[in-house]
Amino acid sequence: MSPRRIASVLVAAAATAAVLWLYGSRLSRARPAPPAPVPIQDGKTINFSNGSPEVGDSAADKAALAAGVKAIDEATRTITFPAEATPTPTR
Q1: What is the pLDDT tens value at each position of the chain, 91 positions in all?
Q2: Rounded-to-10 torsion of CA 41, 47, 51, 53
Q3: Residue 42 falls within a domain, yes or no?
Q4: 20 to 30 A from 24, CA-CA: which of 15, 18, 51, 71?
């Protein structure tokens, strides 16, 4: 092999190693920490939009909860599940 070809292979290998190292180091720094556990509180909202949990108890939050409960109740008012027939024993 010629010295020129050996040099080009070494440069390509060094460039590939540098790119892989940069890619790997950025992935390890990009992972955010998991959010802290927040206990569910009746009648309150939890907002994760800014990346950390915020418990809300404002009048707007209460109105949104009431509207959501009303919409769920209206949507499920007519839903029924018929009872399954009792299976007959087989011999």
Answers
A1: 788 999 999 999 999 999 999 888 876 666 677 767 888 888 888 888 887 888 988 999 889 889 999 999 999 999 998 888 888 888 7
A2: -20
A3: yes
A4: 51
